[in-house]
Amino acid sequence: MVTSILHRATGLALAAGTVLLLVALLALAAGPEAWASVAAFCDSWFGRVLLFGWTWSFAFHLLNGIRHLLQDVGWG
User: How many whole angstroms separate alpha carbon 64 and alpha carbon 59?
Assistant: First the structure.
């Protein structure tokens, strides 16, 4: 039950992280000044925490999805 709740929570975190990724891509297209501000944000402690959380969410969501698929075919 806990892994199901965490799977949903990490899915929401991935959706929010995708919005941040879109903002970063738009800043990259807007020019060097906009990209510099995004890079500065990502280099801050808060930006690093968000990037770490997004990476952890991706890894957990991916591995939990694989585990779920294996259980659906009868393994485990």
Answer: 8
CB 13, CB 57: distance < 8 Å:
yes
| DSSP result, the chain | -HHHHHHHHHHHHHHHHHHHHHHHHHHHHH-HHHHHHHHHHHHSHHHHHHHHHHHHHHHHHHHHHHHHHHHHTT--
- Amino acid at residue number 36: A
Model pTM score:
0.81
Cβ-proximal residues to 35 (8 Å cutoff; 6+ apart), any chain: 27, 28
Q: Taking 80 as the threshold, does the pLDDT of residue 64 lie above it?
A: yes
The amino acid occupying position 16 is A
Beta carbons of 59 and 7 less than 8 angstroms apart: no
